[in-house]
Amino acid sequence: MTASVPTPATVPAQAHATAALSLGDDALVLSHRLGEWAGHAPVLEEEVALANIALDLLGQARVLLSLVGDEDELAYLREERAFRNVQLVEQPNGDFAHTIARQLYFSVYQQLLYEQLAADAGSPFAPIAAKAVKEVAYHRDHAEHWTLRLGDGTPESHSRMQRALDALWRFTGELFEPVEGLSVDRDALRDGWLTTVTDAIRRATLTLPDGPQIGAWTAGAGRQGIHTEPFGRMLAEMQHLHRSHPGATW
Amino acid sequence: MTGTDWPLWEVFVRSRRGLSHTHAGSLHAPDAEMALRNARDLYTRRSEGVSIWVVPSTAVTASSPDEKDPFFEPAADKPYRHPTFYDIPEGVKHL
Fold it and tell me: For A138-170, what is each residue's pLDDT tens digit?
């Protein structure tokens, strides 16, 4: 990028940069996790579906990170502690139920968040959110349909889906922590999220996890650059090529 | 248990309003709703369509290759059945 005259739309204030980084990293990291299914998904059709979702998220990440700086530098040359994504999106794919539970928790959050941002004409993220919200609505639809089928499927799929919902529950509280530079109605976000998620889980004959949504050590930690152990390994794989061959193109 | 346990579905995509649905291919899915979603991901992700139909492959009754001659041969030598004697006016599309 050349140093042209900065405009407010492309060079947001510091607070907005933090917000763009947070949302951009959420999308980038989840995109990479979903991309890991390529070649491993249970069926070909589902592999394409997950890859499509990953590509939607990658597109969002590119736009958001470009608001802050060079997208490639940000994605490939930052250290773990500089990433601002929530810990939920960095959690390993696990079995298919874990991936779907992660999708359900995150896509419901993302859709509600982007709806709010799109409706806020004063937000620098309004145009991005307005475009992304249609993509995210489909991600939520995909996650809900699978939650329903796994929960209301066989005893095996039911117990796996319940296990996945329980395991990821403690990462959901972080979604509602304040993010610098992002003015949203967090109460509405949390209420809307809980209503939608509860409804999907109930329709799938599953039980809403009852543990705390946040742990003493997880509270907002991802947004502050504190990440869980699997994230380091994911980052190593994601950044390895760019770091080994700087500037390589194809 | 593998994906081959899922039934096969035939996918028809309407590429534009005013055109009819055209067979695009087939896919596996556990039920009709998921078939519709899989079809969206497989056949319309480069904005090829505005409407999708999915039909269980088992619901399709097909003519047999063995019946090819009695089915199709008699049509070959009757040119008066073909509307080839009309000029198509200029500017008519989709004919």
Answer: 999 999 999 999 999 999 999 999 999 999 999
Q: Which fold has domain A14-244?
A: Ferritin (1.20.1260)
Condensed to tens digits (0 to 9), the pLDDT of residues B28-63 reads: 999 999 999 999 999 988 878 899 999 999 999 988
Q: Where are the beta strands (DSSP E) in chain A?
A: none
CA distance A204 to chain B (A): 15
B28: chain A residues, CB-CB within 8 Å: 43-45
Contact B41 A45 (CB under 8 A): yes
If we measure between CA atoms, which residue out of A249, A161, A178 comes closest to residue A220? A178
Question: CB under 8 Å to A41, separation ≥6 — which residues?
Answer: A47, A50, A96
Q: Which CATH number fits domain B3-81: 3.20.20.70, 2.60.40.10, 3.10.20.520, 1.20.20.10?
A: 3.10.20.520
* Ranges of each domain in chain B: 3-81
Q: Name every chain A residue with its beta carbon within 8 A of the beta carbon of B46.
A: none
Reported ipTM: the value is 0.75
Residue A112, judged by CB atoms within 10 A of its CB (0-12, 13-18, 19+), counts as: buried
Contact A125, A23 (CB under 8 A): yes
Residues β-bridged to residue B12: B23, B53
Q: Which residue of B has its CA nearest to A45?
A: B38
Compute the nearest-CA separation of A178 from chain B (Å).
35
